[in-house]
Amino acid sequence: MPSKTIALKKEIMDILQNVKDPEIKPISIVELGMVEDIEITENTIHVKLLPTFTGCPALDLIKENIKNEVKDALSSLDNKFHVDVKYCYHPPWTTKRISKEGRKKLKKFGIATPSPDHNPGDPWEIECPYCNSTNITMENIFGPAACRSILYCRQCRNPFEAMKPIA
Amino acid sequence: MKKNESLRELLYQLADDNFIHAFRGSEWLGLVPHIEEDVAYSSISQDTMGHAYMFYQLLEDLGEGNLNQIAHGRKPEQFRNAIILEEKNGPGSYLEKPDYDWAFTVVRNLLYSHFKTIQLESLKQSSYEPLSIVSRKIQSEQYYHLMHWETWFTQLMLSTEVARTKMEDAIKRIWKDLGGLISLGNYGDEISANQYIDSEQKLETRFLESIEKVFKKVEFTIDENPGMLRGNGRNGEHTEDLKQAIETLSEVYLSDLEAASW
């Protein structure tokens, strides 16, 4: 691969850092592990994305945001690339794909993430994102968004959310 | 037979099952027994609509047309969902005097989630790779649905006498049409010969074995095999309830076909 393409790929990845989860503004789609691949052909930038949950209503919004963000950033470089964003299901998105940085940001936002070592069927160990206590109760496996559950911390008495383990 | 016709038939069955089931679930919004359930059930219905979307997408990829048009633009007799999934939640309508039946809903959801789990396990080995990929994705979400409905089912089966009676009545009633869910319809032999999914017989055996374990925990047994009392939805046979579901679901879409985006 020519070094120019590699440089452009890296640049696009940096630009995608500016595309945030529409509901959780501090975290980007890159940190969430949604970006699977970037492919550059003659005049098109193909972004391959993995949806977290398939019924998530934010998916179309994210697609549009990527197109706008990449186009805006590249227009300053006088590039004439067309941006194509596609969702695919292979490999499937899992909670393991959330980056270390992403986990930190989610925690700061009040959302716990399953351990990166979590395997399907394992007991789900969750720490309160505010006080790190494990003295918590599951209020509802289903939450305000398809990807999250609602919990309550008995230690610091805060309600909080957790990303459902998806493996 | 057109190329891939049996594959298309199977995809319509899967897509329409999820589509109609998600719709009946969404009709419960604001009407379920308590607020936590409202959060859970709406989330489950949203996931399920996402699953329908993926199956319709596969049909679009096979050249069946635009996926919104496939979902909203067909006549009832072109639908391939199981009859038991189109049945209304109970008397009344969402807007007027909804006298919906929670026992019926819990049992239907439990049996559907259970069968869907068996189905996905088989579809993961499908000879049609896009279908196996999609099924693997759906399975990770479906896991939580099954857990949810098993909890409701077990708790209601083991609660009061009134609840037990209502639940047992619901199982017996749904059982009479449940065969329509397991059926692969007129194209069943081709579908399984092409290894898109295991045969109807295999799916039924696995389903009965696994549901028996759930029933055993609540000390319930049923002797007959699932029936097809009102016909086979896989072959386009349906009830008036499907007509109502499609009219409601597609009302907005059909009112403005020029609308730019959905």
pLDDT averaged residue by residue of chain B: 95
Report the total helices of chain A: 3
What structural category characterises the helix and strand content of chain B?
A: mainly alpha
Tell me the total number of β-strands of chain A.
7
Number of separate domains of chain A: 2
The string of secondary-structure elements of chain B, in order, is HHHHHHHHHH
DSSP strand (E) fraction of chain B? under 5%
Query: What's the number of extended β-strand segments of chain B?
Result: 0
Structural domain tally of chain B: 1
Which percent range fits the helix content of chain B? 55-70%
**Sequence of secondary-structure elements of chain A:** HEEHEHEEEE
Biggest interface and residues each: A-B, 23 and 26 residues
Oligomer: heterodimer
Are there runs of chain A of 5+ residues with pLDDT below 50, and where? none
General description of the model:
The complex is a heterodimer of chains A (167) and B (262). In chain A, helix 2 (59-75) links the parallel strand 2 and strand 3 (82-87). Chain A has 3 helices and 7 strands; from the N terminus they run H-E-E-H-E-H-E-E-E-E. The two termini of chain A are 33 Å apart. The radius of gyration of chain A is 18 Å and the shape is elongated. Chain A is of the alpha/beta class. In chain B, 43% of the residues are buried. Chain B has 262 residues and is mainly α. Chain B contains 10 helices and no strands. Chain B has helices at residues 5-26, 35-61, 67-72, 83-86, 102-123, 129-157, 161-182, 188-193, 200-217, 240-255. The interface between A and B is medium-sized, with 23 and 26 residues. Chain A: This is Phenylacetate-CoA oxygenase subunit PaaJ.
